[in-house]
Amino acid sequence: MAATAVIFSILLLLGPSLSASASPSPYLSAATLLQNYQNMLSTFKIFVYTPSKPFDFTDAPASLFYNSLLRSPFVTQNPSEAHLFFVPFSHDTSTRSLSRIIKELRNNFPYWNRALGADHFFLSPAGIDYSSDRNILELKKNSVQISIFPVTSGYFIPHKDISLPPFSTVLPDENLTKTSFLGYLKWDGKTEPNLVNELKKHGDFLVEEKSKQLNYMRRAKESKFCLFLYHGEVAWMAEAMALGCVPVVIVDRPIQDLPLMDVLRWSDVALLVAVPRGGAERLKQVLNGVSEEKYLEMRELGVAASRHLVWNEEPQPLDAFHMVIYQLWLRRHVVRYARREFV
């Protein structure tokens, strides 16, 4: 797409958020996003190391990101002009093999040792854990990890790592309808916490198991809030936002791995609620405590934000792929350490 067309697309999406009298926007800073995004399109370069053999990922978001990156204009064959370096390896790579990959990069290329991997990134859908192995430890602590939300506790380092938005192809629906249910939970049918059992018996909440797509999308449009148990069935959160259902993420600890945390002001588009001690009745009180004005604002901002959570086979301006690349762009400045020799 021509640069002018890209700029025009951005202005259409962000323009209302840039004026002094603008209504609230879902962005941390719309003006900064607009400026940085265009700079990213013009200058960002990534060098991709050649994997030992071709592979792909089984998870849709990881596969789409990986293949879109390889086809993108961000990739350069000249490592001297690269801002970041991508280390590709399969999701089922063993710890020993991963250590060998990093060791080969260290020995065969000059780039890893300049910052001990801090200007490198890798894609691991489930994330990687800490290890006593020196190579994996440097990869874990220094390099940017990209994983799929939600990430296992301990496998994600805030402010450094990035989470991919769950797979969604649902475009924002501007025709918001009147709601019938206070809360809707699409349950995966696995072991049921006490809260789920209570919600099933509560008249203000609707719990459905393994719903067909058209059914749960209709239910989302009919509900004020869509409930998500963190590390439960959260994959359709972006779809719920696009359909005008305000997400309520029920958690037992702070969430630090939400997608696009460098872009979106999640507190304005979703509720993060601690597991309520009072069960379903307490949850009802919390949700009813949201004023109608605040609810309508969150609903509108959620629909606007959802456009950045859409995955496309062919990436489009400001979609999920480009927003993940944008977060990498924000991490391109690293401290380059003096080269060290290890025994």
From TrEMBL:
User: Where is it localised?
Assistant: Golgi apparatus membrane
Q: Which is one Pfam family of this protein? A: Exostosin_GT47
- Topology term for the membrane: Single-pass type II membrane protein
Domain (Exostosin GT47): residue spans on this chain: 42-276
Please give the GO cellular component terms listed in this UniProt entry. Golgi membrane
Q: What is its EC number?
A: 2.4.2.41
Does the UniProt entry include the keyword Transmembrane?
yes
What are the protein's UniProt keywords? Glycosyltransferase, Golgi apparatus, Signal, Signal-anchor, Transferase, Transmembrane
- Leader sequence range is 1-22
GO molecular function, one example?
A: xylogalacturonan beta-1,3-xylosyltransferase activity
What is the enzyme's class at the highest EC level? transferase
Q: What is the superkingdom listed in this entry's lineage?
A: Eukaryota
Q: So what family is this one in?
A: Belongs to the glycosyltransferase 47 family.
According to UniProt, the name of this protein is Acetylglucosaminyltransferase EXT1/exostosin 1
